[in-house]
Structure formats: C-alpha cells, structure tokens
Sequence to fold (287 residues):
Amino acid sequence: MNVTDWLIAFIPALSFGLVPVVGTFIGGKPVQQTMGISIGAFVFALIVVLIRKPELNTHIFLISFISGILWAIGSIGQFKGITYLGVARATPIMNGGQIIGTSLVGIALGDWASSQAKIYGFLALILIIIGIIFTSYQEKSEEDIQWKKGILINLIGVLGFTFYVGIIKYFKIDGWSSILPQSIGQIVATFLFGWLIFKTKTLTGVSFKNGIVGIIWAFGNLALLISQSKLGLATAYPIGQAAVIISVFGGVYINKEQKTTKEWKYSLLGIIVICLGLFMIYQAGNN
Fold:
C-alpha cells in the first residue's frame, strides 16, 4: 500500500458526495436519475475502453453485467428510500448498512486479516456510522414517514450496493475491465425496472441531463473498483462513505438548503467523528 493507493481511495468520497448534490440540482424521478447516472457511466466507460483497451471476455462481461444490475437495485432503493423516510432518516440507514455489509463481505474475502486490523476496522465503522447520523441530523422532522416501506426498500438498496462491488471483488475482476459491461447492466436493469415495476418513462430529457451526474459517479466508481483491489473492500468502501461530508456542504452552498445553528453543530461534530473513523481505517489497512 502506498500514498497513491490511498489518494485513489478518496476519489469516491468526492465523486459520490457530489452525485446527490448535482442530481438534486438537475431534478427528476428516482428511476430517471438512476438512468441518467447509467447513461453517463456508459459514455465514460466507452471512452475508457477505447483508450485503454482492457481485457474483455464472456466471464468478465457476465459478472460485470450482473454487478450493474445490483447497482441499479441499490440506486433506485436509495432514491425511493429518501421519498419514504426523508434524507435525515434514510441516509444513516443506507450508508451505515452499506458500510457494515461491504466490510463483512470484505472480511469474508480476506480483508483485515490480523486481530489488530479488525479492532481498528470495527472501531472505524462505528465512528463513521455515528458521524453519518450526526451529519444527517435535522431539527425539524419530515412529515408522512412510511417506516415499513422505507426500511424495506432501504435494506434492498443496501444489498444491491453491497454486492455490486462484492461480486467484482469475489471474482477478482479488474476495475478497468468491468466498467463497460457493468454500465450496460445498469442501463438494461433501470429501463426494465422503470417499465415493469414503476411504470415510468426512463429515457427523458431530464434523464440525459443527469448523464452529467453519471460521469461524476463513474470516476468514483472506477476509483472504488481499483482501490478495493489494492486496499481491500473492507477498507476502500467505508472511505468512500466520507462522501457525506461533501454532500453536507454541497447541499448548503449549491442546493441552497437551510441549516439551523444546532444542525450545523451536529454536522461539524459528525464530520470530525467521520475523520477519526477514516484515521482508524488507515490504521486497519496498515496492520
């Protein structure tokens, strides 16, 4: 592990943090936003493949395609979960669930092998989840909270996001090779979900506008797939969840969201706790 590996691991935090901010600014229904991200990811992947020419075969295509389907499940679950629970309730469930899920999958696949690494790692997870809860604090509660639907759809989303990277890790597929068939899986799955389940048009003007969000997401996704092969899934994925820090400031300064003094105190405290968690992740990766 070198400095470059750690710098790459922090790219998803910036990229994924900007996704909800820019996506909210552009607007659209959950399925349309997901399709926009998928289209942008496909364009990005096509350019990368034409320039780099990574290995592609039937095995890589099939596994990566399935990874794209799992991502689409996670993305739609994330957007729908927010509509049922609101951002303040959905974000800790979704982000915390992803951290726990991917870390357990990573440990099962050999990450954090030593006892000391596991101690640092689990302490880091606890700190990051607490930090996310603090940054998501809202003084005024949302109305019309649908707990059963919200928790169920969030958990489905968590499973989708957990295994979209877990399957790539398990089959040891290179990140450069996976992104094109993965993006095709994203587009196909999102189109089918929109048509068969949500009865919503997925290919609209706002979908293509959200393609910008997809290109931003694709940078982070590629960095995540590369860093999880270098640092391990249990280390790389939680680092990416520091995206919530970017989302906090982006929501205020770009989307003009209002925060009370108390909410700012909780957010800043949460950011400090997340940073402590990231330091513990670094310790886990070096033990």
About this structure: The chain is about 80% helix and 0% strand. The chain has a mean pLDDT of 88.
